[in-house]
Design brief:
Helices cover 33% and strands 8% of the residues. The chain has a single domain, classed as Creatininase (Rossmann fold, 3-Layer(aba) Sandwich), CATH 3.40.50.10310. The chain has six helices and four strands; from the N terminus they run H-E-H-E-H-E-H-E-H-H. The longest helix is centred in the middle third of the chain and has 18 residues. Helix 2 links the parallel strand 1 and strand 2. The chain is α/β, with parallel strands linked by helices and 240 residues long.
Length: 240
């Protein structure tokens, strides 16, 4: 959308008043992955969905809610209420100024505060659906993976497929969370486990072929949300 004129935006929305809104993070994912890992994933997903369905794609918001900003330099986070206010104001602008009637927010960050900020947006007439791509069951593609967890096999495989030039595999370090620390090792948990290199899981098991399978799986599942409902049907619902 940022490369389009207002007239072109109006014409596209007249065909389908839907807007894809990618929301990423600027956050450490271990020493081997870029800070914009989450943003890279959801921007590519938004681009491919936009091309496949002819739906407008908004510029990405590159900051989100997360806690793990201090272990390695460069990470920057928003507070939950800040992200909530920013998204409310953006959605309100598009709803009233551009007559958008369906918003699909794409994110890859499972922090409770992050998802709460995105899922409690106030709307007058439009609908909003929040899809955390890592909320999908990825065990069909990575049956032996621990995760999805922060900077592990899934994240690293996806980046090796989507942006291999940004991955430093020689710096990847495996870190298995203790059996009693499952929640703390999950993506989006409030803290990283002591002793971890900033990532959790087994990034050394990652490769681009796994990343391609993962991305195709995610794209296909999220695409179900973009198919037009039958007459009298419901709006977009999160993919199963």
């Amino acid at each position: 959308m940022k490369e389009m004129t207002p007239i072109a935006v109006r014409e596209r929305l007249a065909l389908r008043p839907t807007l894809l809104v990618p929301v990423g993070t600027t956050e450490q994912h271990g020493p081997h992955l870029p800070l914009g890992c989450d943003t890279i994933i959801v921007e590519r997903l938004a681009d491919d969905l936009s091309a496949r369905f002819g739906v407008l794609r908004a510029p990405a918001l590159e900051y989100g809610v997360h806690a793990a900003t201090q272990r390695l330099p460069g990470g920057a986070a928003l507070r939950r209420r800040t992200l909530h206010r920013v998204m409310n104001e953006l959605i309100e602008s598009w709803e009233h100024g551009a007559a958008v009637r369906e918003f699909i927010i794409l994110t890859a960050q499972a922090s409770e505060g992050h998802l709460e900020a995105l899922s409690t947006i106030r709307l007058d007439a439009a609908t909003v659906t929040v899809i955390d791509v890592f909320d999908l069951d990825l065990s069909e593609v990575l049956p032996d993976a621990i995760g999805p967890v922060h900077g592990g096999e899934a994240d690293t495989s996806l980046l090796l497929y989507l942006a291999p030039e940004l991955v430093r595999m020689e710096l990847a370090q495996d870190f298995a969370p203790p059996a009693d620390a499952t929640r703390a090792g999950r993506r989006g948990a409030d803290r990283l486990l002591a002793g971890s290199p900033g990532s959790i899981g087994f990034p050394t098991r990652a490769d681009a072929r796994k990343g391609e399978r993962l991305y195709t799986f995610i794209l296909d599942r999220v695409s179900r949300c973009l198919h037009r409902p039958e007459p009298g049907g419901t709006a977009c619902a999160p993919p199963a």
